[in-house]
Design goal:
Length: 382
């Protein structure tokens, strides 16, 4: 693949990464940004998009989404290129030139003169089920996310059988899991859906709670059909208070090795009283939310302290020459995980990056309010 050449590769499109684009742009440096999420904003969008933030200087109140929109608008003149739904994999120095070759999980290859780590607390990846056998069924009979997507991928792998009913277990107790269960109940006629969650009551929106209780009540007394004609009863819904502990194949049911490669047939779950049950299953959809994971970055060799990168606070350089780091991913004495700290760090890091990329000892410091050069870079009409 032809490498994507850029002055700087920014790892992470959270507020620190976005403002890093701005500060680098002021110094005339171009940037590509990579992020596993399908959108910019990092924690501001993933964790509190519609909540108000009150400590952004000059903005008495704005939501996580508004702040992201404003940052995206502010960096528009610098035309950053975003690569969403992808994660960096390896980093190695360029041969015979200053810079790095960075490859991504989706097969992109960057040649960047410098790299800025702005990956926050890590990539938000779906929280996994606590069953050791899950890996062998992932993408076949076990999925994360929407039931509809899971079902279409699962059914695509099956020979066409119009009357086949499926036993679907949805794991989770928040809005996403309950919405998946209710959508499955309404949109399909051939599913016996069981929602399992280790806590009651469910942690859901009050309006959703009403819809959930109503649907569950209507389903009571309607027995799962198992196999046969789907259209007679339509889909069914049940709730189990408990936790899945094992996924079982035909072979493991017969007492053989649990990690063999055959299809998923049943699951073992423990109820709130600690009793173990075995239930048949065709498809498992896991909706346990997202958890942050640092991934391959932790193996790049930058000095770290408790999963955070240590930096020189003069220019936010890391122990790897040419690699800088800002935002929640870094630690230094007195570090506060605040958006405004990330902005400050990005401003100072940009001077360190510019020195490295332009191979200069000094980068002129100018004000946006007074500099014709900076205003031209910002595309402000004279
Ligand atoms: C509930 C909550 C409320 C908060 N309220 C406030 C507040 O009121 N005021 C305030 O100042 N701060 C607040 N914070 C803290 C603030 O959100 C963080 O300090 C800020 O988001 C850090 O920005 P960041 O860009 O460093 O990291 P993040 O926002 O975490 O963004 C990092 C980005 O990097 C991406 N990434 C991770 N790993 C990789 C990888 N391997 N490759 C590519 N990309 C990767 C992630 O997907 C993410 O998009 C709050 C935090 C939470 C959880």
């Amino acid at each position: 693949m032809t490498p994507i050449k850029t002055d700087v590769l920014i790892v992470g499109a959270g507020p620190a990464g976005l403002f890093q684009v701005f500060e680098l742009g002021l110094l005339g440096l171009s940037a590509h940004v990579i992020d596993p999420l399908p959108h910019a904003g990092g924690q501001c969008i993933t964790l509190y998009a519609d909540k108000a933030i009150y400590d952004i200087p000059g903005l008495p109140s704005c939501t996580g989404r508004e702040l992201t929109d404003r940052l995206m608008l502010q960096i528009k003149p610098f035309e950053p290129v975003f690569h969403f739904q992808d994660v960096v994999k390896s980093l190695e120095p360029l041969e015979g030139a200053r810079g790095f070759k960075v490859s991504s999980e989706r097969g992109l290859c960057f040649e960047a003169k410098s790299v800025v780590l702005a990956n926050g607390v890590g990539a938000f990846l779906p929280r996994a089920l606590n069953a050791p056998e899950q890996v062998q069924y992932l993408g076949k009979q076990l999925f994360h996310g929407q039931l509809e997507n899971a079902l279409s991928q699962f059914e695509a792998s099956k020979p066409q059988k119009e009357t086949q009913r499926w036993k679907v277990w949805i794991v989770g107790g928040e809005d996403e899991a309950v919405l998946n269960a209710l959508t499955g109940l309404q949109a399909f006629k051939h599913l016996d859906i069981t929602l399992i969650h280790r806590r009651t009551p469910l942690e859901i929106d009050p309006q959703l709670q009403e819809a959930w209780e109503e649907a569950l009540e209507k389903s009571q007394g309607v027995q799962p059909k198992g196999t046969g004609d789907a259209s007679e009863v339509g889909s069914t819904l049940a709730f189990k208070h408990g936790q899945i502990v094992h996924l079982l194949s035909e072979a493991s049911e017969a007492g053989q090795n649990r990690t063999d490669q055959t299809a998923l047939k049943a699951l073992e779950w423990v109820d709130e009283k600690g009793q173990t049950h075995t239930s048949e299953v065709d498809l498992v959809v896991v909706n346990l939310g997202l958890s942050p994971q640092l991934g391959a970055l932790s193996e790049w060799g930058a000095q770290m302290q408790k999963k955070q990168v240590t930096v020189n606070t003069e220019d936010f350089s890391t122990s790897l020459p040419g690699v800088f780091a800002v935002g929640d991913v870094i630690t230094y004495p007195g570090k506060k995980k605040l958006i405004l700290s990330g902005f400050h760090e990005a401003a100072l890091a940009s001077f360190g990056v510019a020195k490295w990329v332009l191979e200069k000892d000094r980068i002129p410091f100018e004000y946006t309010s007074a500099s014709a050069l900076l205003q031209a870079r910002l595309r402000i009409e004279p």
